[in-house]
Every structure is written in structure tokens, then in C-alpha cells.
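lol so apparently i was supposed to do this last week
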Amino acid sequence: MRKFKPRQPRSLLFRLLALAASGLLLTAAFVPEANATLLVYFNFEDSTTGAAPDFISDQTPANAGGGIQASTMTINYGPGAQGDFASGPGLLLNRSFVGDAAGSTGNDSDIADPGQALNLRSSKDHNLSYIQFPVNAFFFQNMTLSYATNNNGNGFTTQTAFYSIDGGATFTQFGQVTGLTAGSQIVTFPLPSGANAQPGLVVRIGFSGGKSNGQDLQTVIDNVQLYGTVIPEPATVVGGLLGAFGLCWHQRRRLVRFLQLRRAA
Ligand SMILES: [Ca+2]
Ligand SMILES: [Ca+2]
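anyway here it is w/ calcium ion bound
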């Protein structure tokens, strides 16, 4: 006959630790993942050569390859004439692709080749001009700005990225490329962590280094993408944690039974 064995404090501690460990594992499994996605996208397609550029962003589901947030770009022409910047032939680089990293070509439903883009002329008269767009980044983090550009002759050889977190009152530089030459290429600037979760975010691309007096096409800008991850909403996280807690509670009985069996063996 087995003797009655009083419960040992050590085994109780072990069981509590085991419970805590299983709870942690389940919690980890239920915290939603933050997926990278296209947040804001400008492909400049809704215009025609010589007309004002299309500054309205493309959004899903109207364009399957669009961003998840609407935005409208604004432009500062610098000291030169407004007409020097117009819509014209575009670039295929950096067109959006659903579910893939920035820089791929694919699901943008505007399939015109070469389509439309920002065409910038008389660069000498427009140094320190810029384009910019607002983003409510309250739920966005780890963002990257990218776009396609081509700089013929005396176009804007220097392009500088700035961001504002106060709705455009003050800007901070976060990237710059210099010595840009002819040829279609992608420029990429990761935003600093200070831009994360900022509802008053504004992203700006500034143009300088222009030396052209003429009306030949010099700088082309197309397919501006703001890519990043969406921060899970607090309600989703709480829901996930509650779900994990419920499962822990459910598993607890089985775990206790299992541990008791082991102790008895
Ligand atoms: Ca385009
Ligand atoms: Ca558009």
C-alpha cells in the first residue's frame, strides 16, 4: 500500500513555472504580426502629357496595387515658372506589387507603358523646389520612401528627403543622393524611427543641383512609394492576449493532470 505523500512545495513551484512558461509561449503565438505593406502610392497616371501632374495618390481597392491610405501631393515650384513642371512620359521602375517588397513591378492596375510622371524642366530656375505629401502615420512604423527617377543633362542631380512630424511646420533631412545622372533608377530613403506613429507626418523630396536653362526634359519622378508596417491596434492586441489567457486557462487543467500523473509515476 502506498503511503500518503504530502504535497511538496518544490513540485508546486515547478508546476507554477511550467504554467507560466506555457502561458508565455501561447501569448507569443497570439500577438498579431505586423506585416510590411504599401502605405501611400503615387503613380501620376491620371493626367496627360503637358497637363498638370496627377497629385492624387492611388489607393486600394480602386487600384489593386495602390496604398492603404489616401494622400494628395503638393508642389513648391521654387523661383521658376509653374509650367516648367508638368505631366509627361513616365518610368516603369518602382511600380507597386501587392504583397512584395518595394521596387517590384506588378499589380499596379495602371499598365500604360511608359505612362505618365512628373516631368521637370528648366531646372536652373527651380533649385530648392520640392514635392511633399501628408501621411497619418499613427499606426505606421519602419517606413521607407522610394521612387523612380531619371536625370538627363542638367537636371536635378541632388535630391534630398525631409520629414516633418508637426504637419509641415518644421522639417528634418533624413537622406540625400547627389551626382544623379541619366538612366532610370530607384532612390530609396529609410525614414528614421522618429517618424513612427506620427499622425502629422509629412514627407518631402527636395530638388537642387539643376543647371538647365532649356525646355528639354531633364528630371523625371515617378512611382513614389511609402512602404512600412502597420502597428497592430491596441484592441487587436488585447483581444489576442485575452484569447491566449483563455487558452492557458483551458490548458491549465490538462497540464496539472499531466504533472500529477508524472509525480505519481
Ligand atoms: Ca507613372
Ligand atoms: Ca492617381
